[in-house]
């Protein structure tokens, strides 16, 4: 039977089908590959002078990468590994470093590999971050005045610390701000993300990033939290970021009584200190004093 559609209608239909196919290819194939390529572009940059009371040091990872860092010794026996977000440097967490040091905590703020003044190949998804945190913890364990170790991380820095906790028992307390996911296994921690269609982009991205970088996806955050059965967690989410609170609720459920979630009102991604300075300081400092020094917690005040 001959088609009743006009030649113009058939051409328009073919154009529409072609445009739809092109849009799908761009969205689900080309864009993830482009992001994977972007994720391995170095983020090296000059870093300013250390804050008052800090010194510049170098760390060496187990795979011989040299990391640049700032260090201030503790006055209270506890030290915090401070980890910046993707594409940033330790300069971007300067205010957090000063806040911690002002309360007597030692602080080791590092540039992740491929960032700032550190060597090594970058992976902006943080897949190699556990090795960087392990180097920082080894340095702190060698200091006579460090008796307890915690970590504070922003965005990917928080994800790295949460994912490292299960492999690094010395990391006794982690405060994470803005953590969500770094890989397919972490993306599907939310039930609504488990439908195959919803996972296509992250599947392609993970494949492409592994292919281009040679890195393997890290230990999933949920597995790490469950394995770190002696660690405590403060999970900070931004009210204005749709997925942060749901992810952090799932992380808290995995940790049970060892975790608490704070959603910062009217805040965007990693804006906690900027938007809620006094309460942010009270909660973070109270958490570390309770988890690392045995002081009564003031985080819920």
Please render the helix and strand layout as text.
Elements: H1 7-38, E1 43-44, E2 55-60, E3 66-72, E4 78-83, H2 94-102, E5 106-110, E6 115-116, H3 129-141, E7 148-154, H4 156-164, E8 171-177, H5 184-187, H6 196-213, H7 221-227, E9 232-238, H8 244-255, E10 259-264, H9 272-275, H10 277-293
Parallel strand pairs: 1-6, 4-5, 4-7, 7-8, 8-9, 9-10
Antiparallel strand pairs: 2-3, 3-5
Overall description:
- By secondary structure, the protein is α/β, with parallel strands linked by helices.
- It is built from 10 helices and 10 strands.
- The chain has helices at about 5-40, 95-100, 130-140, 155-165, 185, 195-215, 220-225, 245-255, 270-275, 275-295, and strands spanning about 45, 55-60, 65-70, 80-85, 105-110, 115, 150-155, 170-175, 230-240, 260-265.
- Helix 8 (about 245-255) links the parallel strand 9 (about 230-240) and strand 10.
- The protein is elongated, with a radius of gyration of 22 Å.
- It starts with 6 loop residues before the first helix and ends in an 8-residue tail after the last helix.
- The mean pLDDT is about 95.
Following the backbone from N to C, one meets helices and strands in this order, namely: HEEEEHEEHEHEHHHEHEHH
H/I helix tally: 10
If you average the pLDDT, what whole number results? 93
Largest sheet: 8 strands, mixed
Distance between the termini: 77 Å
What is the rounded Rg?
Answer: 22 Å
Question: Any idea what the shape is?
Answer: elongated
């Amino acid at each position: 039977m001959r088609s009743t559609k006009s030649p113009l209608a058939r051409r328009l239909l073919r154009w529409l089908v072609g445009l739809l196919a092109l849009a799908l290819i761009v969205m689900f194939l080309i864009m993830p590959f482009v992001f994977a390529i972007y994720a391995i572009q170095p983020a090296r940059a000059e870093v300013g002078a250390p804050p008052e009371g800090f010194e510049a040091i170098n760390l060496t990872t187990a795979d011989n990468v040299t990391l640049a860092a700032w260090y201030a010794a503790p006055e209270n026996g506890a030290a915090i590994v401070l980890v910046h977000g993707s594409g940033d440097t330790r300069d971007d967490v300067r205010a957090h470093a000063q806040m911690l040091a002002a309360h007597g905590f030692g602080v080791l703020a590092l540039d992740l590999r491929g960032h700032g003044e550190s060597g090594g190949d970058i992976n902006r998804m943080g897949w190699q971050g556990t090795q960087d945190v392990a180097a920082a913890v080894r340095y702190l364990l060698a200091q006579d005045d460090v008796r307890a170790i915690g970590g504070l991380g922003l965005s990917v820095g928080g994800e790295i610390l949460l994912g490292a906790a299960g492999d690094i028992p010395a990391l006794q307390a982690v405060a994470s701000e803005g953590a969500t996911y770094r890989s397919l296994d972490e993306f599907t921690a939310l039930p609504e993300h488990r439908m195959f269609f919803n996972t296509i982009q992250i599947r392609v991205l993970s494949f492409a990033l592994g292919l281009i970088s040679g890195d393997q996806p890290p230990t999933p955050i949920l597995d790490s939290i469950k394995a770190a059965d002696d660690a405590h967690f403060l999970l900070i989410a931004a009210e204005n970021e749709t997925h942060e609170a749901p992810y952090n609720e799932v992380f808290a459920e995995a940790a049970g009584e060892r975790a608490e979630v704070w959603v910062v009102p009217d805040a965007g991604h990693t804006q906690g200190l900027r938007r809620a300075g006094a309460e942010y300081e009270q909660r973070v400092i109270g958490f570390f004093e309770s988890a690392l020094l045995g002081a009564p917690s003031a985080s819920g005040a």
